[in-house]
Known about the structure:
The protein has about 200 residues and is of the alpha/beta class. β4 and β5 (about 125-140) form a beta hairpin. The longest helix has 20 residues, at about 175-195. The chain contains 6 helices and 6 strands. The radius of gyration is 17 Å and the shape is globular. Helix content is about 35%, strand content about 20%. The N and C termini lie close together (about 10 Å). The protein has a single domain (about 1-195), classed as Alpha-Beta Complex (Maf protein), CATH 3.90.950.10. The protein binds inosine 5'-triphosphate. Inosine 5'-triphosphate binds near residues 9, 40 and 147. Inosine 5'-triphosphate binds near residues 7, 85, 94 and 175.
Amino acid sequence: MTLCFATNNQHKLAEVRLLLPKEISLVSLKDLGCNEELPEEQNTISGNSFQKAAYVFENYKVSCFADDSGLEVDALGGMPGVDSAHYAGPQRSFDDNMNLLLANLKGARKRSAQFKTVITLITRTNRAQFEGILRGEIINEKLGGSGFGYDPIFLPVGHSLTIAQMTMAQKNTISHRAIAVRKLVEFLTNNLTAESGK
Ligand code: ITT
């Protein structure tokens, strides 16, 4: 089946491409001729995930899925959470966001956090959400040059490398996004016959 991944984030697109079986052919927003920003006006990650998928389904009439993700820091009551992309301001700078988070956690001993992804799938016959969570902690400095967003300051539980020190393939064995994508793939595999040709 053909599915559009409703994202303007090229890092997410690259990660997810590696996780999908060949039976699912992925179409990007660019392939659809969609160059606009997707609406994200809700105050929850799952709400924004649904809003992005619904926008593409309604305006482009294609089966699609969207990913909304965020970093939830326990000592900050779950912040930046749904505001992760623009935590330090509308410039949406990964570096500014990490600097602000490190400043807000300065001296904090409790540094536990989690990445959360909610994927929303919308087709003519199905609407479903899939969640993935990765627990870890925020370290005091930025380490590593791969990945994106908050990856350089996030040390997953049970690992000695930040996500930005891992290859994309390594990130895909543990990440919040990969967990949600695997649930999506399992759902699609179980429903593939019903969905094919739509
Ligand atoms: P789309 O809405 O077009 O998919 P986006 O970059 O705006 O792209 P989100 O709203 O889901 O996507 O992202 C929120 C922010 O959370 C993102 O800008 C990063 O700073 C952070 N983030 C999301 N996934 C991440 C990951 O796997 N690793 C590190 N940071 C991540």
